[in-house]
Design a protein that fits this description.
Number of strands: 4
Radius of gyration: 15 Å
Strand order of the largest sheet: 1-2-4-3
Strand content: 15-25%
Helix content: 40-55%
CATH architecture: 3-Layer(aba) Sandwich
Number of helices: 5
Structural class: alpha/beta
Distance between the termini: 27 Å
Shape: globular
Length: 150
Amino acid sequence: MNIYIENDQTAVDLDIPLIENICKSILLAMNREEGEVGLLFIDNKGIRVLNKEFRNIDKVTDVLSFSQIEGDFPNLTPNLLGDVVISTEKAKEQAAERGEKTVDEITFLIIHGMLHLVGFDHLDSQEGKEAMRKKEKEIFAIIKEKHLEA
């Protein structure tokens, strides 16, 4: 289990060891103990550029996922799940709008992104959306109990 974290933002003071432990717990909850994931934390400007480049959507988003187990060579490196990119600025804004802690929002976005890496999708069907939401809630409850303050 390898987690690679790069912090290229200044909007949120991140607890990198906590985030690494959260990611490991997410992998365990997804039955991907041998998984490798990269996390990149950036600002709104950076994620907008990536969203435009890779999805042709010219706007800020909260999280992007780049799966390595989909596409032309899905089994080339089966443990390398992919990368998750999170805008901490957007996460901070969303947490404030909902009256939640920024760390909870970032955790939820990590879960969301990592579920995309293993094939969950909420865009194509209501069934897929419901399955993803259920799994997000299930994993978030585990993480909240184990890692986050009440």
